[in-house]
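Final report, Chapter 2: Outcomes

The project's central promise was a pipeline that accepts a single protein chain and returns its three-dimensional structure in a standardized token representation, suitable for archiving and comparison. That pipeline is now operational. To close this chapter, we reproduce one record exactly as it appears in the project archive, with the input sequence first and the structure output second.
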Amino acid sequence: MSDTMSGRPLPADRWRSVTVPVLVGSGDAGAPHMLTGARELAALAEKFTLHVFPGQDPNIASDLLAPVLTGFFTTGEQA
């Protein structure tokens, strides 16, 4: 984590080989750098999708997380 938490831009080539859809999730009530990192990661590839959980910190409530994961893994869409 130390290299990616330094404030420098994420190395885009690190995720270039990922060819499957990826769901990147983050709450918006945690430390600002967590949401910034999630947004930066999601922006690196077309198949990366960001879902922000309003009012959640890094410990996202399971009742909010479950429908998003179910939708993503069954239909490729967010709930």
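Archive annotation: The beta strands are 22-27, 48-53.
This record, like all others produced under the grant, will remain available to the consortium after the project formally closes.
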